[in-house]
Write a structure and sequence with these properties.
Elements (H helix, E strand, L loop, with lengths): L6 E6 L4 E8 L2 E9 L11 H23 L8 E7 L3 H18 L3 E5 H7 L15 E6 L4 E8 L2 E7 L5 H11 L7 H8 L22 H17 L3 H32 L3 E5 L6 H14 L2 E3 L10 H14 L18
Parallel strand pairs: 1-4, 4-5, 6-9, 9-10
Antiparallel strand pairs: 1-2, 2-3, 6-7, 7-8
Length: 342
């Protein structure tokens, strides 16, 4: 990588976390995330409330990121921001702020695809992480996305499969909601699953062709199962919460691993990297480590702080684009739908 010090300010506002980071080349100097607590009372993200909270958070978050990095805004080389995909109102806040600041400082503006950033987070310079070699398979698993991507180079990616309906994170959260667990429920399912029997209650796995995913049928089967059992015993969920969570998590992980195994078989690529909020799940981490021993894969798992939405991952893409002179102009607009490679 280049030896000259380039300072990139990165802004992420695709959903309900407002984040700003400062990178010096590939090293993250600061990575500040303001989480929006307001959505918990609604059991999910409310887009209108998310965009308002971003407006309140963005200036203090950027200020804090610069202060933590001990960098003056005049030292910045460029500003990277999430253009999409995500919630339109949330993206507009980050996009508008990045454009204004870049214009005011007269420095380059760099647009970043949120999904590419989850994959390229592995290239952040960090002693606890190793960067994969090209080509590798990237699996992005989050509240809004589930994809398997063949990564040939930093900006040469090919989507091999994706969800046809719900994302894996949504399957976790909605299953948790059916069990009466608060939002976000995914981490709570993971917590209870550690103490439960994963084979206590078998749930059907959807039959989906190729490398695509589907989670809507699984959610329906969990709903009917819980309705049936609580009719027989009103305390069924409370009494068996650990086993239910373990069984739900086991089924979801089986779906993910089955598709990954098929992708490795079809491509012959045994380097597998994961990203996205669900990459923080202890079960998927354990299964990937197991695959290294049993199937000879080399697996790459990011630090927890680079799994969930954060500006550090936006910054690494910004830096890689900066080196190649891939800048955008002031006419750029946020895109709620933004496919990898487009």
């Amino acid at each position: 990588m280049a030896s000259k010090k380039n300072y990139i300010l990165a802004i992420e506002s695709s959903c309900d976390d407002t984040s700003a980071a400062v990178l010096c080349n590939t090293k993250v100097l600061s990575n500040v995330v303001a989480t929006q607590e307001i959505h918990k009372q609604y059991g999910g993200v409310v887009p209108e409330l998310a965009s308002r909270a971003h407006q309140q958070n963005i200036v203090p978050v950027v200020h804090q990121a610069l202060a933590k990095a001990n960098i003056d805004k005049k030292q910045l080389s460029a500003i990277a921001f999430t253009r999409g995909p995500g919630l339109m109102g949330s993206l507009l806040v980050g996009t508008s702020f990045a454009k204004s600041l870049a214009l005011g400082l007269d420095i380059p503006l760099i647009e970043v695809n949120h999904m590419e950033a989850h994959i390229l987070a592995h290239f952040i310079e960090d002693e606890s992480m190793t960067a994969p070699r090209f080509p590798f398979l990237g699996m992005t698993i989050s509240g809004g996305h589930t994809q398997i991507v063949k990564v040939n180079d930093y900006f040469n990616m090919e989507v091999l499969g994706e969800t046809l309906d719900d994302a894996v994170g949504e399957a976790f959260d909605k299953s948790a909601k059916l069990m009466g667990l608060p939002y976000p429920g995914g981490p709570l399912v993971d917590k209870h699953a550690k103490e439960g029997n994963p084979n206590a209650y078998p749930f059907p796995k959807p039959k989906v062709h190729g490398l695509n995913f589907s989670f809507s049928g699984l959610k329906t089967s969990i709903l009917y199962f819980l309705q049936r059992e609580t009719q027989k015993d009103p305390d069924f969920v409370a009494t068996n919460i650990k086993d239910i969570c373990a069984s739900v998590q086991h089924t979801i992980l089986e779906i993910l691993m089955d598709k990954l195994k098929l992708a490795v078989k079809q491509t012959g690529i045994k380097q597998v990297a994961i990203g996205g909020g669900v990459a923080a799940n202890s079960g998927i981490r354990a299964r990937l480590k197991e695959a290294e021993e049993t199937m000879g894969w080399t697996t790459y798992i990011p630090k927890f702080s680079y799994c969930t939405d954060n500006a550090g991952m936006i910054g690494i893409v910004g830096y890689l684009k900066f080196l190649e002179g891939k800048f955008t102009d002031q006419k750029v607009a946020a895109k709620a739908r933004y496919a990898i490679g487009s």
